[in-house]
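Re: weekly structure request thread

Next one in the queue (386 aa):
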Amino acid sequence: MSYVALLSIFMSVEIKKLVPTRKELRRFVDFGISLYSGNSCYVPPLRIDEIQTLLPEKNPAFDFCRAQAFMAYRDGKPAGKIVAIVNDVANGRSEKKQARFGFVDFIDDAEVVDELFSAAENWAREQGMTEIIGPMGFTDMDHEGMLVDGFDEMGTMATIYNYPYYPRHMERMGYTKDADWIEFRVEVPDKVPEKYARIAEIVKKKYNLRVLKYTSRKKIKDEYGRELFKLINEAYDKLYGYCPLSERQIDYYISQYLDFLRLDCVSVIVDAEDKLVGVGISMPSLSQGLRKANGRIFPFGWYHILKSIKGKSDVVDLMLIAVAKEYQNKGVNAMIFADLLPIYIKSGFKFAESNIELETNENVQQQWQYFNYRQHRRRRAWKKQL
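Done, posted below.
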């Protein structure tokens, strides 16, 4: 074989199907983080969390999901990554044969992108699927939605950041919009808006509701940990692509997330019988801490993350708000914000990040009308027939 022929083989794109071991997945995760080295808007995930999410023996979502990770190599160097997923529970609810792609990153190279997505699409066909959507994770607890606007905005711990060339490749490959989420940056006012305060008081008296505040993480986990995630299942049931959390997943997320809450930034609303009817979970932005940690807990990443939780920050992330169905659109959100806003003001927060909201969810977006705000990011779920 000639030197030119050998060189052309070496220069070609190679796709590798990953065996889900810690060693293989570490390489997978490390590529995604290294791709954004030097980018001032990228917020890396914690490597250990990302690896555990993709390990079948660790993530309870594998009880009802199938998945395959792929990596692309150009000239022998990592050039792309993707995970193809089939969520059988979500498909049973939607009555569709739909695969998902997620955890995706790639260099700006059409051949790399084509080969990477072809691998995911072919795997999905082998599983009997007729459509693929994404980026989506196993469930809504994973990151979802490709950034299509707002590339110059600092990301958050709960969202995906990607380069502007990503959506251009999606359109080139024939993917089309399936759903869009939008995000808002909201100014924290110097006092609770008068109308919010009035609505909160009316709702509190009319439905005999009250706010609970906790100083013990163990106590909030014991009293309302499971109920919190069951409330999320109820409140988010009809949202795009939602898959209810299983009992094993609820246990998993209780142990994984509730220990990191800053409890003064959590609002728990209960009725006269102490039944949970609403919850608002927020926390100081971890974006700067995660950037300094560069995805690693050790040796000093823990310090930067802890400093972000307990120290001073200009930004608070609104992680989630969930309200029981019978209380939705009745002003419970006003109670939550009437409780949290004085804490935000006292803590010195100047801005709040809304997290993602479906662009069609007008009821949620109306709550920002009493604040100064701007829509600063948009992200998309793409779809393609197989």
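Confidence is low (pLDDT under 50) at residues 1-9. Residues 217-235 form the longest helix (19 residues).
Next request, please.
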